[in-house]
Design a protein that fits this description.
The complex is a heterotrimer of chains A (about 450), B (about 350) and C (about 80). Chain A is α/β, with parallel strands linked by helices. Chain A is built from 14 helices and 21 strands. Chain A has two domains: about 160 residues, Lyase, Ornithine Decarboxylase, Chain A, domain 1 (Beta Barrel), CATH 2.40.37; about 260 residues, TIM Barrel, CATH 3.20.20. Chain C has a single domain, classed as Coenzyme PQQ synthesis protein D (PqqD) (Arc Repressor Mutant, subunit A, Orthogonal Bundle), CATH 1.10.10. Chain C has three helices and five strands; from the N terminus they run ββββαααβ. Classes of the chains: A alpha/beta (about 450), B alpha+beta (about 350), C alpha+beta (about 80).
């Protein structure tokens, strides 16, 4: 006789809130494949945990965003935010789609050049650019986004010694009704500081002021704040036209669009509440089109959207290491993936689904990572079917920032694979090994040997 | 219109702090010349309405809004495949957002709703009341969103004690001193996050209006009520309809300005000088909506008619001095019914 | 550890359990129902493990671990007592 599929016995109290299958049913619908590739087979081949990226989803997100803006505004250019996910293959998917590169360090800048992005298609942001960083950017004709007066004066000096006119934009910070206001980056709009910087650049006549840049915040749940930002940038650009008879080539509205993740403490899931690309596009494009530019002087609109273009395309497959019962009766699950590689679990309630078929009986569990650290909590409470040791779970919407902010702490960083549009898997980054880390260390002579009793 | 309409209703929590589900059903059952089949949508297996077969023909459990509208939609599709729903009446604040988002898809399945638009819904939030008042030229109590403790003294200088300290979504305290304000600020910030709202406390009488707009700026119905007795949860235990044209006028002005569609409840305060202020706008019918029906304005039935494309003239009058006194009742239920709803999700 | 199910505990086919001495009710999955029924038939821990491993596609170690956990919950919910 064929044996029945075993499921860990569960007993759930019916007194406290909802526990039956209709309250939570489809949350736990197992997902066994990503774009046709079996998650189980991926973990067998590349190990567990493993990050899985969907190329199809990245392209779809990019095209959705691009359509939302380009159907509303004639000149739209996206620039891939390297810090969000700078695996070269991910960057190249965006470059194939037409994205420029947006970098915030010389490391990212060099990555972009090596990926084949021409210097004039690289936007160089960030508060720290050394003299040699700036020289490289100037030589490659990149767009340098100036963050502070010290950088502005340094560029003025360098333009003389290099006999070259650097192409620059200034970063502007402003009050868009959003709290907190990111006033630590760039020049302030309301205080007139941005105007001081603009006047300095134009009157010294050593730099080409080609653009204006702002980046008002992150995970912005209000599309309207972008309308305010667009209006203020447009006001500066029109002011430059009026006072200095000079056209600004582009306005860069930065990034900050929210992805379909659920922020901790929010009642409704992110997928239901975040603004759509159309909402953001309507706010920005509508404002720019009505700002008062003539048709031929309409500046190019640059967007540095990162999170919203890649978060949903990333998954983390992890295995159950252990089932536990805590002293207060709660169920706990230990996974082989923790906050060391899933940094975003500090602020998101990541969706989790089983990989293998499961019944409708569920339990609320705390989900811990493998670190011997109390802070290693992936989810404080998530409803899952009973899982056995070695069962796989899929953690959703992890494509942004995790593969750049992950830590090599206690454990190694796992492999990253991409499922292409035909359902074939490709290794993008192999799992780290102990030798990789030891290779960077050196041992002083006198510490090379010891004997233990 | 079909001879029998199938209408799904949520908010069956007819507890001592009741949801509007059962009163709405009572109104629909009063609809003259129309047969209705009522499908209850419940979140918890102890919602009293589940166990009232004379009011609810069949019930289904649905996932919480926090599970996402995809999950809710799947469940509604299943229910629709069995019941062929004509209309859904969501009655919880927390679920309205999901239903408004789903409304076009529901409509394409043949399920009607009668809800405000997302913009209207969003702009009437408590923390946006000052903007709302300014936009529509309606008097609201002076209030200010405060984003950090450091801003408290400056913010307070614009108010006179007592000040109402409010959370973004819920909770409010009346503070009589700086110390109290700071205390409540911490308490609310910890629970609901920023901003914390300061609102000028207004001494005066509170009034409520149940109303309905047609979405084109017309007020279909409006009945004002004064609470005669309040429970420890601040809910009306008894109330009476009023003849107070200023309340109706304020309601009409609001609906004409923002084109509200569907039911709503306004909370207003009249200060000692007779000035009316809007304190809160609830985006659905209140639990006392049946008082309006009894007074001559069956707004829930009118909502269904409007949604189904019928022409509904505005109600012209209502009976003044109509009273309600709420009562509770220990309904005896079968354990087997509890078992059914809690294991099968249907009853 | 062997458990004795309290004798007024009943489980329905749908997995609904009512504890008449405490007023609590519970929902149990199919493996859980089997365990309750085996306890009702006064089976020992060892008998239950063997019986389940005959019927289900799991090794005895897994079943044993899960059974301990389930027993803890039955005790916690006062549905059974130590034999």
């Amino acid at each position: 006789m064929e044996k029945k599929r075993y499921e860990r016995p569960v007993i759930a109290s019916l007194n406290a809130g909802i526990t039956n299958k209709f309250g939570t049913r489809n949350l736990n619908e197992p997902i066994s494949h990503i774009d046709g590739a079996s998650i189980k087979e991926i973990t067998e081949q590349y190990g567990s945990p493993v990050f899985i990226l969907s190329e199809r989803k990245i392209r779809q997100l990019y095209r959705d965003a691009h359509r939302a803006f380009s159907t509303r505004y004639p000149k739209v250019q996206f620039a891939w935010s390297y810090k969000t996910n700078y695996l070269n293959a991910v960057c190249n998917v965006f470059h194939q789609e037409g994205s420029w590169a947006e970098v915030v360090s010389i490391f990212e800048y060099e990555k972009a050049l090596a990926n084949g992005v021409e210097g004039r298609h690289i936007l160089f942001n960030g508060p720290e650019k050394t003299e040699s960083d700036l020289r490289k950017a100037i030589e490659h004709d990149s767009l340098i986004h100036i963050d502070h007066f010290d950088e502005l004066y340094q560029l003025l000096e360098m333009s003389e010694s290099l006999k070259k006119r650097p192409r620059v934009a200034i970063r502007v910070n402003m009050d868009t009704g959003i709290y907190p206001m990111w006033d630590r980056f760039g020049f302030n709009y309301e205080s007139g500081q941005a105007w001081d910087a603009i006047n300095k650049i134009i009157l010294t006549n050593k730099l080409d002021l080609v653009g204006l840049h702002c980046h008002i915040g992150t995970f912005m749940l209000s599309a309207n704040a972008y309308a305010v930002a667009a209006a203020k940038l447009a006001d500066l650009a029109l002011g430059i036209k009026l006072h200095h008879k000079q056209n600004i080539e582009y306005l860069d509205l930065g990034g900050g669009f929210a992805s379909k993740n659920t922020l901790k403490g929010s009642f409704l899931p992110g997928a239901d509440t975040i603004p759509s690309f159309d909402d953001y596009a309507e706010a920005i494009c509508g404002t720019l089109l009505n700002a008062g530019f003539t048709r031929e002087n309409l500046p190019m609109l640059i967007l540095e959207t990162g999170r919203a273009l890649v978060d949903e395309a990333g998954f983390l497959a992890a295995s159950v290491v252990a089932n536990k019962r805590l002293s207060d009766g709660r169920k706990a699950l230990v996974l082989d993936a923790g906050v060391n590689i899933l940094f975003t679990s500090f602020w998101y309630e990541h969706k989790m689904t089983p990989v293998e078929p499961a019944s409708h009986h569920t339990e609320a569990s705390v989900v811990y990572g493998p670190l011997c650290m109390n802070i290693d909590v992936v989810r404080e409470s998530v409803t899952l079917p009973p899982l056995r040791k070695n069962d796989l779970v899929l953690i959703h919407t992890v494509g942004a920032y995790n593969m750049t902010q992950w830590m090599q702490f206690i454990a190694m960083r796992p492999a990253v694979v991409m499922v292409d549009q035909e359902g074939k898997t490709h290794l993008l980054r192999r799992a780290e090994k102990t030798d990789d880390l030891n290779a960077m260390e050196s041992m002083p002579e006198h510490l090379q040997s010891f004997s233990l009793a | 219109m079909k001879s029998e309409l199938v209408i799904a209703v949520s908010g069956l929590n007819n507890t001592d702090n009741p949801g509007p589900g059962i009163p709405v059903i009572r109104a629909l059952r009063d609809w003259k010349g129309k047969k209705v089949r009522i499908i209850g949508l419940s979140y918890d297996h102890l919602e009293p309405g589940l166990y009232l077969p004379e009011w609810v023909d069949k019930s289904y459990q649905v996932p919480y809004p926090s599970a996402g509208s995809d999950n809710l939609m799947l469940r509604l599709k299943y229910i629709h495949s069995i019941e062929r729903l004509d209309f859904i009446f969501p009655n919880f604040d927390a679920e309205l957002f999901s239903y408004m988002k789903m409304a076009p898809e529901l409509q394409s399945m043949g399920i009607h709703t009668f809800l405000p638009g997302l913009d209207q819904f969003e702009e009437r939030h408590k923390y946006r009341l000052p903007e709302f008042g300014e936009k529509y030229q309606l008097a609201v109590p002076k209030s200010l969103s405060v984003n950090s403790l450091a801003d408290v003294p400056a913010a307070l200088s614009q108010f006179e004690f007592p000040v109402v300290v409010k959370g973004k979504f819920y909770e409010a305290y009346i503070a009589y001193s700086m110390d109290q304000v700071q205390n409540y600020f911490h308490k609310i910030q910890a629970k609901w996050g920023l901003p914390v709202i300061f609102q000028q406390f207004i001494q005066g009488n509170e009034y409520n209006v149940v109303a309905m707009g047609d979405g084109k700026g017309n007020t279909i119905g409006a009945v004002p009520m004064r609470k005669q007795y309040i429970t420890d949860k601040g809910k009306a235990w008894a109330g009476i309809t009023l003849d107070e044209p200023a309340l109706i006028e304020m309601t009409r002005k609001l609906i004409a300005a923002n084109h509200w569609r569907g039911g709503m409840e306004l909370e207003l305060i009249k200060d000692r000088n007779g000035q009316l202020y809007i304190v809160e706008i609830n985006p659905r019918f209140p639990a006392w909506v049946y008082l309006a029906v009894a007074a001559g304005q069956n707004m829930p039935a009118a909502a269904v008619k409007l949604a189904l494309g019928e022409d509904v003239p505005p109600f012209e009058s209502y009976e003044v001095g109509k009273m309600f006194v709420r009562y509770s009742w220990d309904n005896i239920v079968n354990l087997s019914d509890f078992e059914k709803i809690s294991t099968l999700g249907e009853l | 550890m062997n458990l004795r199910l309290k004798n007024n505990i009943a489980v329905s086919d749908s997995g609904f359990v009512f504890n008449p001495s405490t007023g609590d009710s519970f929902s149990i999955n199919p493996v859980g129902i089997d365990i309750i029924q085996l306890l009702r038939a006064s089976k020992s821990e060892q008998d239950i493990i063997e019986d389940l491993s005959d019927r289900y596609d799991a090794d005895t170690q897994t079943i044993e671990k899960d059974l301990y956990d389930f027993f803890t919950l039955l005790l916690q919910h006062q549905l059974a007592e130590k034999a």
